[in-house]
Amino acid sequence: MAVFRSGLLVLTTPLATLAPRLPPILTSAARLVNHTLYVHLQPGMDLGGAAQPQASPVQATFEVLDFITHFYSGADLHRQLDVRILLTNIQTKSTFFPVLPSVQNLAHPPEVVMTDFQTLDGSQYNPVKQHLERYATSCYSCCSQLSSVLLYPDYGTGELPVESPSALLPSTIRPASPVARSPKQPVRGYRRGAVGGTFDRLHNAHKVLLSVACVLAQEQLVVGVADKDLLKSKLLPELLQPYGERVDHLSEFLVDIKPSLTFEIVSLLDPYGPAGSDPTLEFLVVSEETYRGGMAVNRFRLENGKEELALYQIQLMKDQNHGENEEDKVSSSSLRQRILGNLLQPPNLRPELPSGLYVLGLTGISGSGKSSVAQRLKNLGAYIIDSDLLGHRAYAPGGPAYQPVVEAFGTDILHKDGTINRKVVGSRVFGNKKQLKTLTDIMWPVIGKLAREEMDLAVTKGKTVCVIDAAMLLEAGWQNMVHEVWTIVIPETEAVRRIVERDGLSEAAAQSRLQSQMSGQQLVEHSHVVLSTLWEPQVTQQQVEKAWSLLQNRLPKTHQTKS
């Protein structure tokens, strides 16, 4: 069976009847499409008649909004698919046009068009397929060699639960009005409205919020995207997509699903954003989680002489496959957690390193737990090079850095036994960039040379994976002698707590130490693999084992690890 990168799914079954059939329909579509799946709702359309069917408007009701939520929720089981429900033909009562716009361009022109339409004999009936292809190309820009597939009877009927034809979808959208809503109740349209969020790794719960907002808005939608200070409290903020990347993904999605709207995507720097200050906005779409924030926006508007916004609250989408320590809702936080241990960029080619040895550089801010992760990697078979121990060797009398350091800083840095007092040296360089550079210009090349000697030793011991444990890996330029940089991240507040507890420093001293190092965000930008010791030890162990297993899969056969 051919697999296509992008496809269009035309749904013709009435929504209440269609809902219980969605899981098998989605599974059938996912066998044919592996990237972008566009969905077009045209309930009641007959592809089996003599006449070529034409696109017609679909009244936007709460049943339609609930179906959109239901569909995206079901699609979350097929996370490889970028699902986009197209909204051009879904219109509110105030903008109900009998004639729809001409052919709509899509970011990923469909290579195959599919439908749930049921032929009488369940065959791939050619006239029906011809109607389907003509219908698809009359609505959307498709690939010139468009294929067509009738999903029925592949998704079958025998295994489906018995549903009443009038079975109602669970209510997922709650308008602010105290009046009880009914499924067939038309949705009101507004000229301008707003929706906000972080929109990191655009997922199906985001798409529900955005889709509901797009249905409600008739002229313009203002989309606030959290940035800067609003990101600090996020879990694993170092793994957030850059603001520009999030905006690009948002923009493509929004223009695809409803190109008739004007979109204003703005940086959200405070909890209110444009929703608190723009007098022309009429509604705000929020989730269960951000509903209180929506209420706060309305209080702020009233205090400043502006009308309240109509609030539309969307239920949180449950994540049926959430892992340990992950939220039970579909969330970007969980997606970032799942990235831990994965390869984020191609490894470096290092032909100058010892043949048969694969070298990792392990780094992270002070207190991040590098030593514990290094020990876990050692238990899995890696050879560990501790840069701190190499520093001690270099400082020792007769060591390669001993004489240069004494000449640079004077004999008053020595203990009575002639060994270097590292605390005295530390006090000399602390806060003195010139003195610090003098020290690092001596130490870093020496430690780098010792590390190379350790690599040769690792080879003689039969090791194939070597880990350089170094807090200053990137600052020292040692990333140039590793195949991959692995970084441990934790929140700065947690790092401060650990440093205070471990080293007996004051909070101010701990923060000062962290400020003298590269931030977690800066380290991640240069990293191939990211891990975190934020949770229980067994969670860290699972991350390390996952990262190690993935590493084994990408190692050349000559580098397969010997434990």
Task: Please explain how this structure is put together.
The chain has helices at 15-18, 22-32, 62-75, 126-139, 204-216, 243-257, 273-277, 291-303, 332-339, 370-379, 387-395, 402-409, 422-429, 433-460, 492-503, 507-515, 520-525, 537-554, and strands at residues 4-11, 33-41, 58-59, 82-85, 90-91, 112-115, 147-150, 173-175, 190-197, 217-226, 262-268, 283-287, 310-314, 358-364, 383-386, 465-469, 484-489, 529-532. It is an alpha/beta fold. It is built from 18 helices and 18 strands. The chain starts with a strand and ends in a 9-residue tail after the last helix. Mean pLDDT is 91; it is low at 157-166. The chain folds into three domains: 4-150, Rossmann fold, CATH 3.40.50; 189-314, HUPs (Rossmann fold, 3-Layer(aba) Sandwich), CATH 3.40.50.620; 340-382 and 463-554, Rossmann fold (3-Layer(aba) Sandwich). Helix 3 (62-75) packs antiparallel against helix 5. This is Bifunctional coenzyme A synthase. In the central section; belongs to the eukaryotic CoaD family. Pfam families: CoaE, CTP_transf_like. It is an enzyme of class 2 (transferase).
Task: Determine the oligomeric state from the structure.
Answer: single chain
- How many helix segments? 18
Q: How does the helix and strand content classify structurally? A: alpha/beta
Number of strands: 18
Taken from the alpha-carbon principal axes, the silhouette is: elongated
CATH architecture verdict of the largest domain: 3-Layer(aba) Sandwich
Number of domains: 3
Write down the overall mean pLDDT. 91
Distance between the termini: 42 Å
The largest pleated sheet is described as: 6 strands, mixed
CATH topology-level name of the largest domain = Rossmann fold
